[in-house]
Amino acid sequence: MKKIYVFLAPGFEDIEMLGAVDVMRRAALPVQTVSVTDSLRVVSSHHVGIEADILFDQVEPDQAALLYLPGGMPGAANLQAHEGLARLIRKHYDAGRPLAAICAAPMVYGQMGLLSGLRATCYPGFEDKLTGAEATGELVVCDGQFFLGKGPAAVLELAYTIVAHFCGQQKADEIRAAMLYNEV
């Protein structure tokens, strides 16, 4: 299977990155975390230093199954400002491949005009950045090529949805049960 790339910019939301990576790796999906800086170490919005697996220049665009953008501020704004990432997103989108984002990060896709005519969700207060989309306010929204989560509380549900897409609902349900999520 092709890789799932999770992009880290300074100020990313810790749980939105770690929770998603954890669930996807439990499903044995080939996840790689990617620093969009010149260092593997990226500091989160809560001042936690995380070492990414690779640098942005090591991403293999043709090997990308999914691009995942964690939210957080200024992390989402830093992702939006990365020109190389914008080109990669556009190429991935044009190829018809899935994209995911959570919290403030759906604004990256929205400001690129990629969500126009679709249902979308994001952290409250960022709806105006979802250009042309119907902001639903739902916890998780899947429409077109997009898997979107509202915020930190959505990370596990969003990750289970991604696992179901790539591995089937049964695998997602097994991981959900093993993590005791059904007891919430």
SSE arrangement:
Elements: E1 3-8, H1 14-26, E2 31-35, E3 41-43, E4 49-51, E5 54-55, E6 64-69, H2 75-81, H3 83-94, E7 99-102, H4 106-111, E8 119-120, E9 134-135, E10 140-143, E11 146-149, H5 155-167, H6 169-178
Parallel strand pairs: 1-2, 1-6, 2-5, 6-7, 7-11, 8-9
Antiparallel strand pairs: 3-4, 10-11
Helix pairs in contact: 1-5, 5-6
Describe this structure in words.
There is one protein chain. The chain is built from six helices and eleven strands. It has 184 residues and is an alpha/beta fold. Strand 10 and strand 11 form a beta hairpin. Helix 1 (14-26) packs parallel to helix 5 and helix 5 (155-167) packs antiparallel against helix 6. The termini are far apart.
